[in-house]
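To assess whether ligand presence alters the predicted conformation, the chain was also submitted together with pyridoxal-5'-phosphate. Input:
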Amino acid sequence: MTRRLAAGCRLPSTRQLATRIGVSRTSVLSAYEQLLAEGYVTGQAGSGTFVAEDAAPSMQLAPTAQAAARANPALSRIGQRYARFASGLELPPNLPFAAGCCSIDAQSIEALRRTGMEVMQNFDPAALHYGDPSGQSALRDEVAKYLRVARAVRCEPEQVLILSGAQQAIDLTIRVLLDPGDAVWIEDPGYLPTREALSTLGARLVPVPVDRDGLDVEAGRRAAPGARAVYITPSHQYPTGAVMSIQRRLELLDWANAAGAWIVEDDYDSEFRYVGRPLASLQGLDRGETVIYVGTLSKMLFPGARLGFAVVPPSLVDVFRGARFLTDRHPSTLQQAVVSGFMRRGFLTSHVQRMRQRYRLARNAVVEAIERQMGDLVEVEVPEVGIQLTMHFRGAVDDVAVAAEAARRGLVVKAVSPHYIAAPPRSGLVLGFSGFDEHRLRTAVAELARATRAVIARAAPPQLSA
Ligand SMILES: Cc1ncc(COP(=O)(O)O)c(C=O)c1O
């Protein structure tokens, strides 16, 4: 007995099963009778047959030797990396200050519901078939229109690929442009999922320090002048929050053009800018077709949407289409139709405008609460853009221990120090503020202050009494 059917599960009727597996009904009837006689199923003619609640456990079959060997399968080199990554993989709960939580108000939910109903009512049968690996042209048009206006991205819809998020854009980029051992500049500190994806697929990571102006291009030139690519978050460096200066942007483009390197620009949360005018995307400044621009709905709308996009130079469109096809063919047609309808009706733009107001208040509330409750312990980098902030401890505090203590108290914060590779690590925390109301955020800051003080007290040497 393999227990693949749970107790109480209804078996198909003898007639259905006989038709499905192509044997006579008499054979099925006698098999059911045997199961009934041995106590594996219960039931009477007419009322259905069910898996017995108390089917004898002693009948459970031991796994075969082959099955036991499969419990520890030999994996490919890449498989071993995936397994190691999975062992530390945690899905953060929706608690303050999880960066994956975004707000969505009743207006946007209603807009999504209405758009979804219209899509279903006017369902285009063409959407039942396999679709374009680049994504539906209606959605690519909307994304191109949006990016030209909002991010000064220079693109035609043919250059847009609809993807399942920034992570897929990064994965496909590595597959189509890098060979194992190729050098890639990455920000130090930087975004861990990109670092993992690059090293899993065999790239040689070249950590390049980041300062207040973003990636230090000169340091990158010294470390690996002939690198194949650079991955960068210029509008809101993760995790320091730095915005890359225009001089550095131009320097980076100069280097990439001269070296024949690719720039992967991850523009993950630049929509939420609270002061001044946004700096143009790197892609918009580029005249050399060196930038692969990556955007996502994860922050703009919500991460469960699993929808993002890349804008690639015309010479790369075909190779990306091929890679997308062989990975998972194309994005869901139904989901694309809903999102393109949502964008065409202007709902995404108005959602972003409303959320920008909301997130600005959330940011201000968190900054003000941190300064009041733990200003003696930390320095806050007030973000001009984005939906998370970084604060650094003034003294030597173990940020990993604080994150663990905060988790025990129902908070999700990320320690900064594990994001460093070669640069001297700073100790701090990253706090997402987009998914919670101001009251909840203030209460959470108070708890975080208590968690931090508890860790500091534990680490302090015991006081000698006089
Ligand atoms: C730097 C960075 N890039 C991209 C993303 C979003 O990735 P995805 O679109 O795969 O959800 C995040 C989310 O936290 C991020 O921090």
